[in-house]
Amino acid sequence: MPSAVQQDPGPARMRRSLGVKDGVAIAASSTAATTSIGIGMGTLAAYAGRQTPALLLLAFVPILGIALSYARLNRSEPNCGSGYTWVGRSIGPWPGFLTGWVVLVGNVIFMAYTGAVTGSVVLQFLNKLGLYSVWGLRLDPASTGISTAVGLVALVVVTLTAITGVRAATRLQMGLLIFEYVVLLVFCGYALFVGDQPFSLSWLNPLEIGSPQAVAQGMVLAVFFYWGWDAAFSVNEETRSSTDAARGGLIALVVMMGLFLVGSLAFQRVMSTGELMHNGPQALTFLGAQLAPEPWASLPLAALMCSAFASLQSSVIPTARGALAMARDRTLGPVWQRVHPRYGSPAVGTLLIMALAALLAVLAVGIPKLNDMILTAVNSIGLTVALYYGLTALACAVRFRHSLRAGAVRALRDVVVPAASALALFGLGSFLVWDYATMSDHFEASPDNGWFMLLLPTLFILAGLATAAWAKWVRRAPYFRTGRGTDADAITLPMDGDSGPLPSPVEG
Questions:
Q1: DSSP at 496
Q2: HSE-up of 247 (CA within 13 Å, CB side)?
Q3: What is the mean pLDDT of the chain?
Q4: Which among 186, 196, 208, 217 is placed 20 to 30 Å from 100, CA to CA?
């Protein structure tokens, strides 16, 4: 390597400028509590009824175990590849690659449907302002096509913001979070006191949920609600300390649990189960209209719009960095590891993620109703999220199995809790796969057809296995010989137009 390059690492280094507050902003924005509460409570109520708060509390238990597993693994090996790197080293390269793959695919799907949700929220806001059509085109928030078109514009905007650097993005996200959480807590807190639906302790009893199938389906959806807190671990190379990433993720997760519980109780104090299911993605708008006159009634919708934008942006960031970790192991192509010379972000990968999400969103327009699109995507992602969370927790139990001989406290923290959390999610996923496989007697492209819901995650896994085979036998990726991800402090990143590689993208 030329000495000039050794002396001057150049501007392409991924800068260690993030702290705990930034990790909280990324994780909380990615989890998108306001969006989940605003558009998803009706879906949960379809399975859990008035026991939706109990379901959210129940789902928090294994998710907390997964989060503790992430924190323990991150202390041992901080890496923006997170589960992809940890599972590959502890269990094997094939399950490790699948972990990274389902995160990548799941986030692309999430961005595609979140783009449509963002578009729908923007259209709802325009309707609130009295604008119902433009040039003869009806601005219908329930239209998948119109919502997707508006969402694609939002996707381009947040992608360009993400490319300019994580620090700038987290500042924007923190401002959006403060606004939306203040609005959410004020309206939901008020609803708890003035709602006309009588409160019952049975709302907190998961044993009163109708059937095992309803519990399983509801749990997967609830896990999807919590999904996103692990985004804090995807910016390890840009975080001052690995403990900052862990603290950010854990703080965000606990805050999300509190918000979900308050939100679900507030909705049920104002709406019956039928009303909650009927309003669907417009439930938060309905809540605002029930509690306050205009213009104050539009504040929850404005908060939902902020949450959707922040969630969209925070999904781009960890997805591009996960692809960067895979590319530097040559399990994905080199294009994913190109770092912008000025902003120090994986710019090309970020643009590719946006393009894939946009393409998927356009293809999904074939599903006529936005609600159907949301439910299909959530069901598909929920199973894959349960898979990669379970694999990562299992990797923690395997890697630190020697702690079984180091005392009860360490054994519980490093092995028992991770293993129990992994088994809970694997069992939940397996039951749901069986339920999907037996609930229908024919195939139909519909979100209530079991074979269709099972087909989508199956295609994700098969595509991942095919990509892994290409990486192993064609690219001859060293990852498939050792299962070890590249050391983040030793990697060199090739840049367009460079005569040689640059030094490590992180400062030691």
A1: T
A2: 11
A3: 82
A4: 217
- Which residue type sits at 145? G
Are 332 and 320 in contact, with CB atoms under 8 Å apart? Answer: no
Contacts of 504 by beta carbon, 8 Å cutoff, 6+ apart:
9, 13, 488, 489, 490, 491, 492
Using left for φ > 0, alpha for ψ between -120 and 50, and beta otherwise, residue 49 falls in left
Alpha helices in 207-365 (DSSP H): 212-226, 242-270, 273-279, 283-291, 299-327, 347-363
Q: What is the pLDDT of residue 217?
A: 84
Q: What is the pLDDT of residues 208-220, one digit of tens each?
A: 987 888 888 888 8
Dist. CA 329–CA 335, nearest whole Å: 12
Asked whether the predicted pLDDT for residue 423 surpasses 70, the reply is yes
H or E element, residue 374? helix 370-399
Q: Which residue has the tokens 């807590």?
A: 185
Tokens 């599972």 locate to 87
pTM: 0.84
**Angstrom distances, CA of residue 211 to CA of 208, 364, 379, 426, 486:** 9, 31, 18, 19, 46
DSSP string, 383-398: HHHHHHHHHHHHHHHH
Angstrom distances, CA of residue 285 to CA of 38, 52, 443: 8, 19, 35
At residue 134's C-alpha, the angle toward residues 129 and 137, to 5°, is 120
28 near 256, Cβ under 8 Å? yes
What is the Cα–Cα distance from 98 to 4, expressed in whole angstroms?
Answer: 39
Q: Which of 84, 155, 94 is nearest to 119 (CA)?
A: 155
Q: Which of 211-225, 276-290, 384-398 has the highest mean pLDDT?
A: 384-398
Among all chains, which residue has been given the structure tokens 């939706």? 52
CB 301, CB 284: distance < 8 Å = yes
Q: Say if residue 330 is exposed, middle or buried (CB neighbours under 10 Å; 0-12, 13-18, 19+).
A: middle
Least confident residue range of 112-121, 395-404, 481-490: 481-490
Query: Please, which residues bridge with residue 369 across strands?
Result: 143
Please give the structure tokens belonging to residue 249.
């993720």
- Whether 392 contacts 73, CB under 8 Å: yes
**How crowded is residue 111: how many other Cβ atoms within 10 Å of its Cβ?**
28
- In 455-491, which positions are buried (b, 16+ CB within 10 angstroms) versus exposed (e)? ebbeebbeebeebbeebbeebebebbeebbbbebeeb
